[in-house]
User: Which sequence fits this backbone?
């Protein structure tokens, strides 16, 4: 709590320096300045200013300036920050069942994830986040598909055995590492580059755009297209802040975020081939292991979810169209 309080004090000081006549929403997020998510937020900010005639603006705090993703969501929940974002499955810190969305190979693609976000199951979760935690999810942006980089080639699931694999401190991604035989090593996002460079860990897993933005390919000679988790960035606003906006302001914000999300998705899709080419030019070898054994390895974790949340829990998600 002491760390969170300190970060909140920093955030308050930053915001106080930017008080203006218009309605300003302060947005904190983890992605770096050169990332597609950052450019999407810039696009959203520009669009919001344009459609509101300057009456409404976004103030962006990128690159984890205000803390890690969990700390920033907590600031939103407490009303100390207006908006932040986290993968929908990452909201498991509030609703444990959402962590299932990070379970490897459960979600097929972003279309499937979007359907879940807007399904009755997803809407129930979103309502509970708002009611119980003052977090109102208002949009979902494509973030990417998580792949696995390493200091040794991964040509099959057997090559994962015993690998020290950096994961976020998220149960489902830790389960991915365990399921394929690796040793999960949760490390803060900002510390991953050094951990890879010094061989404190053997590999990490992230979307390609993040691997490029954080330059992990500079210290990892291999990239395996494991395609294990499809992710979004679910953008939430403080419920109290949302209710304090006029209907016109709410509409402006939703429209601006939609434009920003389209920009981010366009950049992520367009950059994938470019990023892979960049990796290869830097000497990275890209492998395409058979994923069938990876999927089979995760079945016990589906059974655990069903035991925890109900007999048909995972099948309900899998069947969502």
Assistant:
């Amino acid at each position: 709590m002491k760390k969170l309080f300190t970060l909140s004090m920093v955030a308050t000081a930053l915001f106080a320096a930017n008080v203006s006549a218009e309605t300003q929403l302060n947005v904190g997020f983890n992605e770096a300045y050169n990332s597609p998510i950052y450019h999407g937020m810039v696009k959203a900010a520009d669009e919001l200013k344009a459609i509101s005639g300057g009456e409404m603006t976004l103030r962006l705090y990128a690159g984890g300036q205000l803390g890690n993703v969990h700390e920033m969501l907590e600031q939103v929940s407490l009303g100390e920050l207006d908006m932040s974002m986290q993968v929908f499955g990452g909201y498991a810190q509030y609703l444990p069942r959402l962590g299932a969305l990070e379970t490897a190979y459960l979600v097929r693609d972003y279309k499937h994830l979007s359907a879940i976000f807007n399904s009755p199951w997803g809407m129930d979760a979103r309502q509970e986040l708002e009611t119980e935690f003052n977090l109102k999810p208002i949009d979902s942006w494509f973030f990417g598909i998580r792949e696995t980089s390493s200091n040794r080639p991964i040509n099959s699931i057997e090559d994962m055995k015993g690998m020290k694999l950096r994961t976020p401190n998220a149960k489902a991604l830790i389960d991915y590492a365990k399921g394929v035989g690796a040793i999960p090593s949760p490390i803060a996002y900002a510390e991953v580059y050094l951990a890879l460079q010094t061989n404190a860990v053997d590999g990490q897993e992230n979307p390609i755009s993040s691997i490029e933005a954080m330059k992990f390919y500079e210290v990892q000679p291999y990239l395996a297209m494991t395609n294990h988790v499809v992710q979004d960035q679910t953008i939430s606003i403080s419920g109290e802040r949302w209710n304090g906006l006029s209907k016109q302001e709410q509409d402006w914000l939703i429209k601006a975020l939609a434009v920003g999300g389209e920009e981010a998705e366009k950049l992520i899709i367009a950059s994938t081939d470019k990023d892979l080419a960049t990796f290869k030019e830097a000497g990275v070898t890209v492998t395409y292991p058979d994923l069938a054994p990876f999927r089979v390895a995760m079945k016990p974790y589906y059974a655990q979810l069903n035991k925890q949340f109900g007999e048909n829990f995972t099948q309900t998600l899998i069947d969502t169209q």
